[in-house]
Amino acid sequence: MEEELRAMAEDLEEFKRISRESVHADLFAQLQRRVEKITSLAKSGPIRRSKVKDMSAEVVDSNPYSRLMALQRMGIVKDYERIRNFSIAIVGIGGVGSVAAEMLTRCGIGRLLLYDYDTVELANMNRLFFRPDQVGMTKTDAAVQTLSDINPDVVLESYSMNITTVKGFETFTKSLTCQNTHSSKHFIGVDLVLSCVDNYEARMVVNQACNEINLTWIESGVSEDAVSGHIQLLIPGETACFACVPPLVVASGVDEKTLKRDGVCAASLPTTMGVIAGLLVQNALKFLLKFGHVSPYLGYNALKDFFPTMSMKPNLQCSNNSCLDRQREYVSRKPERDAAAKAKEAEMLSEAVETALHLDNEWNISIVGDDDVESSNASSSTSGMLPDGLIHELPTADFHQKAPIAQDSGAFPDDLDELRKHLDALNAA
Amino acid sequence: MEGWDPNTKSTLTQIPLLSTRAGPRDGAAWTQRLKEEYRALIAYTGMNKSNDNDWFRISATNPEGTHWSGKCWYVHNLRKYEFDLQFDIPVTYPATSPEIELPQLDGKTHKMYRGGKICLTVHFKPLWAKNWFGIAHGLCLGLAPWLAAEIPILVDSGAVKHKDDEVIASTTTTE
Question: Residues in domain Ig-like (chain A) (predicted)?
Answer without folding.
Answer: 152-244
